Automatic annotation (TrEMBL):
Domain of life: Bacteria
Alphabetized GO MF terms: DNA-binding transcription factor activity; transcription cis-regulatory region binding
HTH tetR-type domain span: 15-75
Record-annotated DNA-binding residue ranges: 38-57
PANTHER family to which the protein is assigned, alphabetical: HTH-TYPE TRANSCRIPTIONAL REGULATOR RUTR (PTHR30055), POSSIBLE TRANSCRIPTIONAL REGULATORY PROTEIN (PTHR30055:SF178)
Keywords per UniProt: DNA-binding
Protein name as annotated: Transcriptional regulator, TetR family
Amino acid sequence: MAQEFQRARRPEQKQQRYDAILSAARALAERDSVRDTSLADIAAEVGMHKSALLKYFTTRDEIYLKIAAADYVSWAVEMRELLAKAGSIGDVAAAFAETLATRPLLCDLIAHVPLNLERTVPLESVREYKLTIMPGIFELAEDVRRLLPSLTDEDILDLVTVVSSVAASLHQMANPPETLARLYREMPELGHASEFEPTLHRIVETFLRGQQAR
């Protein structure tokens, strides 16, 4: 746990506190998952009272929506770099699978954004989140369209839905809570044997080939 901060008075001190909250929330979610991290946990990790933390963020979900936006942006940048070198459907599928496999927190957040995070925060926070991530998604869509010109606008939207839904689900299945993990160790036939990266690659490639074959 960090030592408790002195009261932030100057703008740079407030920014330091703001950044520390985001860093603590990120570290806790990476260790324990988004679901199992509370606002009190974050406040304790930073070394401040929960009431003081609420001066920076209205809820725990607002913190994680902010982190989700930042991670979406950085993911889109890496995706565009890989797509610039891609030349086939397999390359496109590999880019999605490889980049998301190295971002487990983003996959965890993707599951929570529509389920919880967007539903509990102020409308302005949702608007800011959408406006932050959409430019990168639109640019990413154009890169995919350049490589696969037969895809329609609807196909691209479906691709985004498939990738986000499958990545979120695969991540949750690959990281069960301890009670389920114990059950799967005792009865492996009940577990989910799919590995994240090759499974996501296979599903995305199958989807894209199906869209092109229509």
